[in-house]
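This protein record is not my work; I was only asked to verify it. Where you disagree with what is written, explain briefly why. This is what I was given:
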Amino acid sequence: MKVISTKTHGVLDYLEGILLIAVPAIFNFGRWGEAAISLPQILGLGLILYSLVTRYELGVIKSISMKTHLTLDVFAGAFLAISPFLFGFYDSAQNAWLPYVAIGLVIILGGIMTKITPESLKENN
């Protein structure tokens, strides 16, 4: 069920990107090693960059399709969610895995639940 507009998705993209960049400091991920810090920051920067080049209301360059953008979201969210287990910083005693899995699932759900055609394109048809 596609219930999220592309404009709303765009706002969420930039907020999630900023959150991913900031989350290592918020949750003190430094104690779990360099991968725990750099992975969300790289994914956050990537999310912002591919949002800037997406053909939707908040894209600037508008070179990749919304479908491609949403596919990237699903893969990036899945990678983020499994990253603590792939890179060994899942310390279950301190629930180190939880922010990665939670944010990853939110990104996946956003990718699945967002409409593919921006409203601005529908109005032009």
